[in-house]
Design a protein that fits this description.
80 residues; alpha+beta; 2 strands
Length: 80
């Protein structure tokens, strides 16, 4: 359900390592949210993502912030 909220569709029976990097990152983020993490730390989360996946990630981050979850985001890209 969390992944659907992130706009990501995943077959629950599919091994994680067979998913694309962007999908793997969304799964990791969903795991953090599912355990009610109060802080999410991201190190270079967009480094291997396609532009569409970057947009999705930023929407998810805004959603998390709206829920009161602190997000620490590290990037070497000045445009982020």
């Amino acid at each position: 359900e969390l992944l659907d909220g992130f706009g990501v569709r995943v077959d629950p029976g599919r091994p994680l390592h067979t998913l694309g990097i962007g999908t793997q990152q969304m799964v990791a983020l969903a795991r953090a949210v599912s355990v009610r993490a109060q802080v999410v730390i991201m190190d270079e989360p967009t480094s291997s993502l396609e532009p569409r996946e970057v947009e999705t990630l930023f929407r998810v981050i805004e959603n998390l912030r709206g829920q009161g979850i602190a997000v620490l985001y590290v990037s070497h890209r000045m445009d982020e």
